[in-house]
């Protein structure tokens, strides 16, 4: 575009899994306005972040040139110098210690095409399956729960299906702040159509206050009430018997595993009253009777997944939906709400230690043979390290080098001091990001990347919907879109990649991945989108499981119940449960949105929510500083006295202006047993008045 001209560019918001589409109006580098277009996920809506939180792209703190460590400082370098250093160090470390001494972490802030290239760099160029992405920190347990029961790891329908439901249940999700436009659609359906709304959460947030029923169980006990409600439905003869008979395996074994989960047991463990759970069971059954369109949609997020039993509880949600026949028709199903826009896509496109793009398993010899031929390399059959085990491997000295793209790992991973020690232990550490992050302080090379407004590509939202984004601005300074950086690094290592545009990358990925067989940029033009699986003829699949579940026999599988209680139950020394989550105004750790003056003025820092009774008991003044101390660290925050939290609970947003006060200084090493997702929500602290 000629200088001074006004441009309108269609892009997709990266700030949450709703994946709102909009036009960005720019003149030169100035963002004039954000105008929602006819996006399939958002219609003509956005939230405050999507509308106003983009000025960070012109921040004077942006990285604009590669940096190389020089003793205790960093010096500016050329791209050739930086990539040559990376190639030399990676080559030396691989020669000395083997390819599994290197690890790669992709970002869900980046595009599908970029996730594809990170895993290709790891597998083809280096020869390791040590590759993962930041869904390991949030939604891997939800994916595991769905893989165990219905076969695909994504939402079973679209946001439109959530609107069509007769009953929406949210569990461990503060959707009004974490997925604002989706929550608006739920609120609208509740108000205008009389859609039932049940909210189960530790905090009485906005959606909880609007719900027909708000249930506040004890922390970490969702598995118990879900299993008890399911058992009650089965025992009372209220299950969807024809559905179970025709489409589901494993009923007898599952039923036997529920023996202990009576409503009375659930009341004792969760604190929810047995009559309330019985009423919930009947509410679910009434909304599932099949006589009217729609059924039950269950939405869940990190309150469920970031627990030691996150995968078990996610499977319990899916079990409940199966027992009541809530899969396969419009207006029903399972909806794990993805955090960033591209949490779904980063895994879809293969940035996982055991799966190639489209969830094709590295253990499958036919899959390996296909990729080996296409990439002219050997694909290893063993699963690699994930984010969590990479930290452990760095500390025990087996992981020597890490390539981290678009992830403030030092603040968003749990147990921050432990992670810092792992970063210090690495022999070579590459960080690729938009800003010089807290994590970058430990790097040997820092590469300047472009944010979403400066790049082309695709994102996949929480609905499995693939959408195009177009570059509204040129890269700032010498920064580059991540796919270009990855290609430079790969080619410095001798790969010979020749991608000229992200469309080339998508074309290659689609040719190797049945899930995306019909995905082309032509079919994604403008506001068009595709919901995977996408057939070769371009037909897509907004609603899964209409005829078959994704297992060889086409039948779903009930997964036996196993309750994994919390590890850090409060005790005399650490007497309060600490919960954490997102804020409406800020994105993730806050590196971007704290640099947007309007947003930062509105919400300048993190805080800790304290119930009025607890505040009175401990002498905590609203707005005063307090110290929170856990077994793993301490932070200093201002107290916000509010009855949103229960008396024995504290709540801290994950977004902090100062790294010293990040909530993950308090969280520990406990993790979901099946996926290694940190159990952020399983943290006990004490509160000290300053
Ligand atoms: Fe939409 Fe989420 Fe972005 Fe808000 S943060 S505009 S709801 S995608």
Spell out the blueprint of helices and strands.
Layout: E1 6-12, E2 21-27, E3 30-36, H1 48-52, E4 67-70, E5 73-76, H2 79-97, E6 102-106, H3 112-126, E7 131-133, H4 140-149, H5 159-164, E8 167-171, H6 175-178, H7 180-193, E9 196-200, H8 206-210, E10 213-215, H9 222-235, H10 241-247, E11 248-249, H11 251-257, H12 263-270, H13 274-286, E12 296-300, H14 302-305, H15 310-323, E13 333-336, H16 343-348, E14 355-356, E15 360-361, H17 365-375, H18 387-395, E16 401-405, H19 409-412, H20 416-425, E17 428-433, E18 445-448, E19 457-460, E20 465-469, H21 482-492, H22 502-512, E21 529-531, E22 556-557, E23 576-581, H23 597-602, E24 607-610, H24 612-618, E25 625-630, E26 634-641, E27 649-653, E28 683-689
Parallel strand pairs: 6-7, 6-16, 8-9, 8-12, 9-10, 11-22, 12-13, 16-17, 17-18, 23-27, 24-26
Antiparallel strand pairs: 1-2, 2-3, 4-5, 4-18, 14-15, 19-20, 20-21, 23-28, 24-27, 25-26, 25-28
Helix pairs in contact: 2-21, 3-21, 3-22, 4-15, 9-12, 9-13, 9-15, 12-13, 18-20
Bound molecules: iron/sulfur cluster.
Iron/sulfur cluster (SF4) binds at residues 13, 15-16, 18-20, 42, 46-47, 49-50, 180-181, 341.
